[in-house]
Amino acid sequence: MRKIKVGVAGYGTIGQRLADGVALQEDMELVGIADMVPSLSVQALAENDMVGVNGIKYNLYLVEGADKAEFDRRNIPVEGTFEDLVKKVDIMLDSAPAGVGAKNKEIYEKYGVKAIFQGGEKNSVADVFFHGYANYEKGVGKDYLKLTSCNTTGLIRSVDCLDRAYGIEKVVITIIRRVADPGDYHRGLTNALQIDKAPSHQAVDLMTIMPHIDATGILVHTPVTHGHIITVVAKGKQKITKEMALREFQKHPRIRVVSLADGFKGNASLFKYARDLGNRRGDMYEIGLWEDSIVESGDDIVYAINIPQESVTIPETIDAIRAATKLQLTREEGTAATNKYLGIGKFKK
Amino acid sequence: MRKIKVGVAGYGTIGQRLADGVALQEDMELVGIADMVPSLSVQALAENDMVGVNGIKYNLYLVEGADKAEFDRRNIPVEGTFEDLVKKVDIMLDSAPAGVGAKNKEIYEKYGVKAIFQGGEKNSVADVFFHGYANYEKGVGKDYLKLTSCNTTGLIRSVDCLDRAYGIEKVVITIIRRVADPGDYHRGLTNALQIDKAPSHQAVDLMTIMPHIDATGILVHTPVTHGHIITVVAKGKQKITKEMALREFQKHPRIRVVSLADGFKGNASLFKYARDLGNRRGDMYEIGLWEDSIVESGDDIVYAINIPQESVTIPETIDAIRAATKLQLTREEGTAATNKYLGIGKFKK
Amino acid sequence: MRKIKVGVAGYGTIGQRLADGVALQEDMELVGIADMVPSLSVQALAENDMVGVNGIKYNLYLVEGADKAEFDRRNIPVEGTFEDLVKKVDIMLDSAPAGVGAKNKEIYEKYGVKAIFQGGEKNSVADVFFHGYANYEKGVGKDYLKLTSCNTTGLIRSVDCLDRAYGIEKVVITIIRRVADPGDYHRGLTNALQIDKAPSHQAVDLMTIMPHIDATGILVHTPVTHGHIITVVAKGKQKITKEMALREFQKHPRIRVVSLADGFKGNASLFKYARDLGNRRGDMYEIGLWEDSIVESGDDIVYAINIPQESVTIPETIDAIRAATKLQLTREEGTAATNKYLGIGKFKK
Amino acid sequence: MRKIKVGVAGYGTIGQRLADGVALQEDMELVGIADMVPSLSVQALAENDMVGVNGIKYNLYLVEGADKAEFDRRNIPVEGTFEDLVKKVDIMLDSAPAGVGAKNKEIYEKYGVKAIFQGGEKNSVADVFFHGYANYEKGVGKDYLKLTSCNTTGLIRSVDCLDRAYGIEKVVITIIRRVADPGDYHRGLTNALQIDKAPSHQAVDLMTIMPHIDATGILVHTPVTHGHIITVVAKGKQKITKEMALREFQKHPRIRVVSLADGFKGNASLFKYARDLGNRRGDMYEIGLWEDSIVESGDDIVYAINIPQESVTIPETIDAIRAATKLQLTREEGTAATNKYLGIGKFKK
After folding, report:
1. For residue range B80-124, what is the model confidence (pLDDT) as tens digits?
2. pLDDT tens column, D89-112
3. Is C161 tagged catalytic?
4. Complex-level ipTM beyond the 0.90 threshold
5. What are the chain A neighbours of D281 within 8 Å (beta carbons)?
6. What does the alpha-carbon distance between residue B185 and residue B191 come to, in Å, rounded to a whole number?
7. Set A128, A145, A150, A171: catalytic member
8. B19-to-A158, B66, B314, D318 alpha-carbon distances in Å
9. Residue A272 and residue C324: Cα distance in Å, rounded?
10. Subunits that touch chain C (at least 3 Cβ pairs < 8 angstroms)?
11. Among A192, A265, A268, whose Cβ lies nearest the Cβ of B268?
12. How far is Cα A193 from Cα B311, in angstroms, rounded to an integer?
């Protein structure tokens, strides 16, 4: 079978994980990656002789404005220009800095290449605002998809999980947001919590993807780097008990139910656990969900989830490739293929 | 009029603020404070020649087990023993470390002295679990009262405020907890969020004080020192709009409505503001409530408050003295007297 | 005696403390303060009816570009323009944002008014780069002085202290820098140490003020808000023992020798202690110096100091007013007058 | 050739990395690991069907006091008891909690098994206090060795590097210590720097390993989790210029010279880089050394290094196995073998 040819624009926090994710899909080929500067991530790839996961070489293309001499000086091999890459692929994963994707789209259109944009772009850049589990079918055959952001992606996994089983009418979320990624020096917060104007965009985005649900919420930034925590107050169409919720969460391949008793005391425990698993970069594709956090309140079910912000959108982005290129036509088949190649859900009994 | 004679057991984070609070009440006399070791707080008092607010001298008494020679070596004057202090007062404010209050109670009983315990003690230590605004009348004339903890005190202020105006049926809270106070070295959290088993004790405590309300919630510890933030999802007996909620919050003397537009970006802004006001120790008695956080969700009203953990319980503890000693017999009179002497509510239009 | 008339440009972190410092000097008059926006600090002043320390009113003048309507809307009284203020004073303390001071200087020159600039301006803005203890006499009668920055001010206090007693040849410093002030949301660092290119500017600045000393050092930013810590490796012209160093440090009015045994475990202990002292804003004018940190290494003496970044430059800035206006002609008299009115050194035996 | 049979006591932060390190040595066999509780690290191993690096199975043995039923309940396979493990090996790597190693030693002696202890144990537990580069030969053929702690191990690498080339007389260090590891919830520090009594034990330990050098220093704890930073002021027997120092550092296999210009802004950059390299757990065996930090001060050379606290002692511990078991008799051969199997130094030109 002919493999889908994929390129990645922007080899940053998300881009390098997308590249790895694609490289793991046996029905896809990572044609190359594109970036503008020899960042630490690019330097690390070069130290590995441009070899990423599974011994696959990641060919580097330079976007317009890049200083090729600087790459040469560092002996970082360059394969060509961004347009050279675009010409070779079926679909681009655009993880360029927010706003750049809209400009890149002109190039994608020029060469008739499909593209998946990340959450930083405006919705208008895409035909569909996409989530692998919540609206896979809407993305099938479309040219331009935009992924939900990290918090929204993880949040929707859990809400969609309950919604399919029992029906959800409305949700109120509190997002306890990590303010920077490990290694970030361009943003930070020190000994302070910071509150955003309500409602948070994640609640608004959830309603765009799941228009039958009313959602609102408050976001508070916290000075940590490992994983957002979201508390969810969800009202079911029927009364959802703790047992009913837990049963569904435990069946979901991209939800990892954890407990305080096992030693999962917070977001940092999940990061530590992923490192100890030997996961590349200490990443985790699953959201964590604390069994001990689930409580009932009248008709509402309440729970807390952990969002591994660096890696959580990778599976749904791979799903998006499958939908856009019609590799699989249904949510069940599309997500199952992604899960298989990423090794998601293996630990489930 | 004869002043109520008050003693303070434990001159720590809470105790020194209680002592200041009492010293500001014109109908009370701070007889003395008691502690066991020459802590930094005691050393600071000694550097000021034992003079606290309003030029009032804070006489120091030593609890059993204290090493008086150590105080002498540091030239810290000692007035007598803990029992000497108890014998001189009408009522003790017990802010000893959690659990010690229960033992101190034996001494209070021996001398027929009333006492107010802080949140760290078990409810069984007291006749009434008390909150100045929510159940003042239950404390009137009682011998032993226990105050709600800092988060619960501030939370109840806001819930009681809405409940009296519109009726509240149930609340779901997310507590984003500061993990240590400024200067704490005996506890801390570094680059991690930590989750507790749900429901949080604050939700349970709220139900004890306000038994007609169903409450639950999740608590997450964060590595900051200035002010907890709590998000509240409250269901009214009637639909409560943002305007209806805001109107009540703005009338409450112990709630400070703030906005992002004014520069109140988070808990640290409120601490900075209190310092800039020239408040002693940079303390604030009011909880902050972000106007920008208030949103509606079906029948629920949602909002976020800031809890200045070091000082928030001081007013309600002074209220408790008033109730226990029958200085004032009603909630309105009792809290008004406390507010007057503490300067609370002056900034309200 | 006619009082020196002083204005303060910029009512930010430093400016408000300068205003308080001036208001405490019995031989000076705080004519007014100037700012551009109704910041939290200005709002706090307005909540206090524009009254600062000692019941003194702080008249507010608006710099060019300010939106007066916005101040009116908030009922913040405005006395006039920045130039109105400059016309009324003998000397301006310029704590405007870095770079603005150089532009303000044109206005000071226009009206023949002296000025003291803070550390953020370039040295070229001033006639003398000034430190109250190290080179007071160089500032006497000068029109434009620039203060050393917070770290340099505190560092020089300690080095000058040893230098005057024993002679210092060279120093190597490690600055463990707090990255933001309490309440700062415009800068921050999360779970990271950040290193600057060596040598640090503080070492270079020390050599400018004390040209007979060779200095270099490394600066590392840390995610905390209370107080820088600097370790100093100083080589004496003679062997300086721990006892010799300690003796001099203990005599210096602006150095507070503390110990771990007393409970001063780090920078946060000193902040807590200043709050417990009841110091306005929890500020401290003295640097802390840990007795337990002093060790000898061959000919070098090694020690660690704490720099309270928000308030440490206030005394030396007041010294600068005295020098520039010839209120006192010598270091001894000038610093003694400042210390008296700021209450510095009272705690020394 | 018969492989050296190795066991690891304690599968915690250090123990699991020791196990991986041994599994990578082609002349060693990892017989098994021992622990007491099903920690997150053990659970992660179990989720991987007890398979660690290179597809090698890590057999688990339980130390006395372990609750085997708890392991059974979790389906974690157990091979036997701690003594069963000890009986099968030539040498034990003891990374049990501090103090437990001394008790374990009785079992090692009972079965005539050699052991390498980590830095938490007292020096008296071992025949030699060991560092692979500084005193390899002292460990040759010995039964009980104790490794230097993480900071001391990395520090000595850099000092020994200069000492062998130019001779070092004395050093003064400032340790800017990370206070917890990622995922630690049992210790932490929040918005505070904490100072220890000088001299730091690392300076004292350096003198034990390198008795011809005079060393002292100050340690300050900081609220971060990724990598200590140490500034070193070293006095050479001859004047050491920046170029001379840099040349030697660049040749050392276990020192990675980095620069701010390349994007290595601090300790978190190195952690990020190790993750991006795809290193297991995001670990790095090399210390980082900032080229931009190297400055001269009279006869002293000054520089800053980064200590990856979780993994830095692994190579020197493997060296210790080689020395104790006489696999290699010299420093050059021993460290070269370790480096080869751990992939250290590959990136050097």
Report:
1. 999 999 999 999 999 998 889 999 999 999 999 999 999 888 999
2. 999 999 998 889 999 999 999 999
3. no
4. yes
5. 275-276, 278, 282
6. 16
7. A150
8. 49, 20, 9, 60
9. 59
10. A, B, D
11. A192
12. 19
